[in-house]
Amino acid sequence: MAEQKAAQIIQVRSRESFVHRFHGDGGPREVEIFEEEIRHAWADEPSITEAQKVALVRKYLGCSVKDELACYPAKFTAEPEALLATLRRAYDSNTNRGTKLQDRTITELEVEERLSRVEENEEKIKKNVEEIRKKMEETKVENQEMFKKILQKLEEPTQTKANRNDRQRMPASIGSDACFICGRRDHFARECRENTTSGRRQGNDRPRQ
């Protein structure tokens, strides 16, 4: 049993010896060669698992490539096919002309990630705006009530003074207890008028000096 396991290890190592380390600076052809060698290594081991495939790819990646791949979300590097697709997208001539990830301006993956963040931020902004709008409406109603009370308090003394002045300026009516001619209470205008008229007459009847 131990001899069989040792033979399998030797066989796997012999197959892996054909895989060259991928540094990402050999142009688009380097991507093609690396993928071919990796797929041959996978095919020679039918019982290899998905996790082992990913481990095998990462084993032969250069340090700079590993550092760059660390910036990607896990869904683009956790599975073997996704990992190879990410390498092609980063270094293939049809996409980036063989340039390294650090030399790229932006990738499709970055665009997708940024769009996702923008959508999340938009949702947060909408919620914040809605909360602010509700608070403004509540504050507006409260302010209106407060201003209304203040105006009422300011208008009360003015209105009271105006009413008092109106009463002072208003002449006594015919049914009141004050004369509207002389202003005395318990004195009616008719009597005041008669007294005034009789007084004038008496003054006219006096002999002239």
UniProtKB/TrEMBL annotation:
It comes from the Eukaryota. The keyword Lyase does not apply. Residues 108-149 form a coiled coil. The keyword DNA repair does not apply. Keywords: Coiled coil, Metal-binding, Zinc, Zinc-finger. Residues 179-194 form the CCHC-type domain. InterPro entries: Znf_CCHC, Znf_CCHC_sf. SUPFAM superfamilies: Retrovirus zinc finger-like domains. It holds the Pfam family zf-CCHC. GO terms for molecular function: nucleic acid binding; zinc ion binding. This is CCHC-type domain-containing protein.
